[in-house]
Specification:
Elements (H helix, E strand, L loop, with lengths): L11 H9 L24 H15 L5 E6 L2 H11 L4 E7 L8 H5 L3 H12 L4 H25 L3 H7 L2 H10 L11 H13 L4 H5 L6 E6 L7 H10 L4 E5 L6 H14 L4
Parallel strand pairs: 1-2, 2-3, 3-4
Helix pairs in contact: 2-3, 5-6, 5-9, 6-9
């Protein structure tokens, strides 16, 4: 699950390693991204995604698989696991996020994440304008400039996306979110509004003891700083937490080898 920015490509070395190991990697493009149709306004965006994924895996003949999520897509990974417990063998949440239950958790975020996520929580009517402005900024200053705007307060994330192989994967992958001919800002807005509006704290709690869940987090995550991660560890002590001191929210793009090792333990 490729994050709100639709990072549907991995670094070339990671894709090659997945192929060498015989992995089949399915990356669903969200409604309203790329050439896909947006969801009708009456449908909750999270529910629509879960229904799509169940249909997709059935169509592809997949009966069991682990789910790798990036960033906030941990939310949708939990929803999917709850809706399809017979399918999901594990959740591996890279830069994982759990329900935000304290105002301080928003206040600790770096400015871009706080701007969008706190806005979705407390002033959702403004979010479509905020996100549209952000996408227009990205188109104007280019994706490298936009990545610096989003992750500039995390030196670890900056160092990660400045790796040429990682930058290539992020630029090409995010074409489904933003290109010269397409902008997914409306669907992006719906995602964050539905996520911040819904109380999903019972979903991970109900999966305790039923599903292996691994959180792979960076110590310099602009959305989940260490103080917030410590609160997650208290609220959800049954999750396996692994923290990398040299990474931020883009931890997968730096430590994908460890993630693939973990993935292999949950494949048939």
């Amino acid at each position: 699950l490729p994050l709100d920015y639709s990072l549907v490509r991995w670094p070339a070395s990671a894709e090659q390693e997945a192929e060498t190991r015989g992995f089949r990697v399915i990356v669903p493009v969200r409604p309203g991204y790329g050439k896909s149709d947006p969801l009708p306004a009456a449908i909750n965006y999270q529910d629509g995604c879960v229904d799509d994924w169940k249909t997709l895996l059935s169509h592809e003949g997949v009966t069991h698989c682990p789910v790798i999520s990036l960033g906030d897509d941990a939310h949708r990974a939990f929803l999917f696991a709850a809706a399809a417990p017979e399918t999901v063998t594990a959740i591996i949440a890279c830069g994982g996020v759990l329900p935000l239950t304290r105002r301080e958790q928003y206040e600790r975020m770096a400015k871009w994440h706080r701007f969008i996520l706190a806005g979705a929580r407390y002033t959702p009517h403004l979010v479509p304008f905020m996100v549209k402005a952000g996408f227009m900024l990205a188109r104007k200053i280019g994706k490298r400039g936009f990545l610096h705007a989003v992750y500039g307060q995390s030196s670890a994330d900056v160092a990660t996306f400045e790796d040429p192989e990682v930058f290539e994967a992020m630029v090409t992958g995010s074409e489904t979110a933003l290109s010269e001919t397409h902008s997914a800002h409306e669907s992006f807005s719906r995602i964050v509004i539905d996520q911040q509006r819904d109380d999903w704290s019972s979903v991970p709690a109900d999966l305790a003891g039923k599903l292996p869940v691994h959180f792979i987090n960076g110590a310099h995550d602009p959305e989940v700083p260490m103080a917030t991660l410590a609160e997650f560890q208290v609220d959800y002590p049954w999750i396996d937490y692994r923290v990398y001191e040299d990474a931020g929210q883009l931890v997968f793009f730096r430590h994908w080898r460890d993630v693939l090792e973990l993935v292999e333990t949950y494949l048939p």
